[in-house]
């Protein structure tokens, strides 16, 4: 069906003709019939690369051109920044003859520029949920004026954890019957279906069935290769296929960075896109890729959706994705739009080969397995020679940690004498090997030997304290007999609560030492200590009797509690008998 057969504005038809949009795809035809003719909301499932972006953009322009919607704007929610830029570019191409202001809202860029675009009263706002909520909380945008709500890549939004943000945004919008609701998703799940039926006005479900979720024009190949040989095979395939442009997908940021580094070392013009790269640099790389300045792009799954590069002839899955749906989106970067054919090559190594079963189950077909023919084998051998002759970067002469250890610490030569011929405790003969110590020498290693000269004593710098007597200037051994500290012969009176001792006048033999000390200590007990009342819980010497022993309450003197308990039980048992 032709676009001209629908009741579209002439300016809109002129824009479609300018970009060679004449015949509708199945999803475009079904969407326009439901919106333009049946006046219904749309809940559509369609595989990637089938023109669903153009379908909701045409329906959005048609709805905003109505006289009663001149003060309304359209809100398009997408999961990634790259998809925001892609939709804005296609919207400008379709509506190039319409005087519509557009605004893009996404993270990673300055607030001021986006705030300025919102103040110009845009008719179309393409945004990611997180940054849009920030502007809504600051009252920089009034979502009550939204006349169209479009949710693209709904399944991806849920996978990225935007479910709560979506619900917050929908609550700020007008009622479902007061706006046009369009929801598109490459795959369907329960969350997407629940969102459609709860927050849309009786939507019409559109499912574009296909024999396979992937585009039929994509040729798929699979190579079973070990993990250590994937890079060599990748370089050989690039020589054989010689593509105009190619995207190489890896499961990790580190893997994508390693691919880009190796390809640059091999002389290829390669760029890298992953999550930690700033948005401004990402857009610059994508534009260079579209203009042909860059032919090879190493990327993670962040570039698997919403990235449209014309004439992309080859997609290589360096790693099989953990999520089977990402495989569909990866290879969907080729054979898009007017390009009807494309090639997708996947490597199945010992680590990611377990993802193959779920991928083939989702696409409902077996991926044809390829073998290395003679031509490819020759290219592999040539690549191995080139890699061996290519000088490695400084600091990467050896990739093995153990090779560095062998260079710095070579193994000692074995002793020539047998172990049994040496006596126990005898040291083994020293070898001629002198281990190299790469540790930088410190100042401690070069410390000069201390001389053993006797230095004169330093003068005392401590000031004398008035509350203490001055110390003697004589040496400790040279003090006069009168200055030497002696033990006092008088008892101390500063602690009357403790018995004090004084040194005996004459030394007693060792055998009678304890007895004399006991007599001496008893003779010097103070009067206050003797007259002090003794506590009932104070320990008494063995054999001593208290003059007035305390009587516990409820107990007779010298009565054992345990015997009383036994007597009590004996009386009870005797009564029972």
TrEMBL record:
Keyword Nucleotide-binding: yes
Domain Helicase C-terminal, first and last residues per copy: 230-388
Domain DEAD-box RNA helicase Q: 1-29
Record keywords: ATP-binding, Helicase, Hydrolase, Nucleotide-binding
Record's compositionally biased regions (Polar residues): 524-537
Pfam families: DEAD (PF00270), Helicase_C (PF00271)
GO cellular component: cytosol
InterPro entries: DEAD/DEAH_box_helicase_dom, DEAD/DEAH_RhlB, DEAD_box_RNA_helicase, Helicase_ATP-bd, Helicase_C-like, P-loop_NTPase, RNA-helicase_DEAD-box_CS, RNA_helicase_DEAD_Q_motif
Family, as annotated: Belongs to the DEAD box helicase family.
Protein name, as recorded: DEAD/DEAH box helicase
């Amino acid at each position: 069906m032709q676009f001209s057969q629908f009741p579209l504005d002439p300016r809109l038809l002129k824009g479609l003709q300018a970009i060679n949009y004449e015949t509708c795809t199945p999803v475009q035809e079904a969407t326009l019939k439901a919106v333009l003719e049946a006046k219904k909301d749309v809940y559509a499932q369609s595989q990637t690369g089938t023109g669903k972006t153009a379908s909701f953009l045409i329906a959005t322009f048609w709805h905003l051109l109505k006289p009663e919607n001149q003060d309304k704007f359209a809100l398009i929610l997408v999961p990634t920044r790259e998809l925001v830029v892609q939709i804005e570019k296609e919207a400008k191409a379709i509506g190039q003859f319409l005087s519509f202001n557009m605004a893009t809202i996404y993270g990673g860029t300055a607030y001021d520029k986006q705030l300025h675009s919102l103040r110009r009263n845009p008719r179309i706002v393409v945004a990611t949920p997180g940054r849009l909520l920030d502007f809504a909380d600051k009252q920089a945008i009034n979502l009550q004026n939204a006349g169209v709500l479009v949710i693209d890549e709904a399944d991806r939004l849920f996978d990225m954890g935007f479910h709560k943000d979506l619900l917050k945004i929908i609550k700020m919008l007008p009622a479902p019957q007061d706006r046009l609701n369009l929801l598109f998703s490459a795959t369907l799940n329960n969350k997407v279906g629940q969102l459609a039926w709860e927050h849309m006005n009786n939507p019409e479900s559109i499912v574009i069935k296909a024999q396979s979720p992937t585009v039929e024009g994509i040729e798929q190949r699979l190579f079973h290769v070990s993990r250590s040989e994937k890079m060599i095979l990748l370089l050989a395939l690039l020589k054989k296929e010689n593509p105009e442009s190619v995207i190489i997908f890896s499961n990790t940021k580190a893997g994508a960075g390693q691919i880009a580094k190796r390809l640059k070392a091999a002389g290829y013009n390669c760029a890298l896109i992953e999550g930690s790269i700033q948005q401004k640099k990402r857009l610059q790389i994508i534009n260079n890729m579209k203009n042909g300045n860059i032919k090879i792009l190493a990327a993670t799954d962040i570039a698997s959706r919403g990235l449209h590069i014309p004439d992309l002839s080859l997609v290589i899955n360096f790693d099989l994705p953990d999520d089977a749906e990402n495989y569909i989106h990866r290879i969907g970067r080729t054979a898009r739009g007017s390009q009807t054919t494309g090639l997708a090559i996947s490597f199945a190594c010992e680590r990611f080969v377990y993802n193959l079963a779920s991928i083939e189950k989702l696409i409902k077909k077996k991926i044809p397995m390829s073998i290395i023919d003679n031509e490819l084998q020759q290219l592999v051998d040539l690549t191995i020679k080139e890699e061996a002759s290519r000088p490695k970067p400084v600091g990467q002469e050896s990739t093995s940690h153990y090779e560095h250890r062998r260079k710095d610490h070579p193994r000692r030569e074995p002793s020539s004498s047998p172990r049994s011929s040496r006596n126990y405790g005898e040291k083994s003969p020293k070898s001629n090997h002198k281990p190299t110590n790469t540790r930088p020498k410190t100042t401690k290693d070069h410390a000069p030997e201390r001389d053993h000269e006797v230095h004169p004593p330093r003068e005392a710098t401590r000031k004398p304290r008035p509350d203490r007597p001055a110390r003697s200037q004589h040496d400790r051994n040279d003090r006069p007999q009168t200055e030497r500290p002696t033990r006092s012969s008088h008892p101390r009176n500063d602690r009357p609560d403790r018995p004090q001792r004084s040194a005996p006048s004459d030394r007693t033999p060792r055998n009678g030492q304890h007895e004399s000390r006991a007599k001496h200590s008893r003779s010097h007990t103070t009067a206050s200590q003797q007259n002090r009342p003794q506590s009932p819980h104070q320990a008494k010497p063995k054999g001593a009797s208290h003059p007035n022993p305390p009587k516990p309450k409820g107990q007779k003197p010298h009565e054992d509690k345990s015997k009383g308990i036994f007597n009590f039980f004996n009386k009870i048992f005797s009564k029972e008998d």
